[in-house]
Design a protein that fits this description.
Radius of gyration: 21 Å
Shape: elongated
Strand content: 5-15%
Distance between the termini: 13 Å
Amino acid sequence: MSESVDLLGQCLGHHGEFGKELVRCYPTHFSVFAGMDVVSALRNYLWRFRLPGEADQIGRVVEGFAQAYFLQNQPTKPIDVKTCVEPIAVGWYVKQPYTRTDVLCCAHCGTIEGESDNDLCVCEGCGIVHFCRKCSKRAHYCGHAVGGRIGYGRACVHARDQAGQLDMGGILTYKHMYGLPAAAKVQLDHVTWGKACPFKTEDSVMVLAYAIIMLSTNLHNANVKKKMEVHEFLRQNRDLNGGSNFPGDYLLDVYSSIKQEELKVMTA
């Protein structure tokens, strides 16, 4: 077993054309990637061979993984390049990220409460998810109230549902355009709001995979004194998902998984 994982690692890291082709083709045979979250997929993949030691070799390994993972986990909606309207990341923006000290942060960009005099505002539709002033203007693209203040969106409904805050009969209260309270009977559609893959490009998978590897080192290496917090992880990955952000609660789940268990790779 040890010899086989050593040999496979050497082949994947080989600088010749065969090695470069193998490192692209090998991960495409991992059909288990389909529907698997990116952290679990990375754990599954990196435990199959001895990871090469050179930076450019590791880069090719991560690039091959990203290509295969994205191929099996396509975006839920196409990006409208004409209007630059970003599609809703289906299933996300339903949980509020916090720092380790329970300080609120923007669910889209990671800005913390009071940072640079930028106060956070809670979405009036759900009363749970917070956005900074800048991100609140586009909260409706995340499935929340328009501007974070008028009406409600699908993410509001499911945020309330997860928090157990929907009234009996599925009644949701919110503010309409005149700022007055209103109520609506909502129908939970768990099928269309199932947590879909939020990646927009293959490059975004590769960038986040690198970030996950670095996060694991930061959180679990005893020599690193300053541990990264949730909001810092969100800010580190701003604008890296096809030019936009990853959903904050998606990155929160990634962070929590790595914090709970180190990302292990086979070493010599």
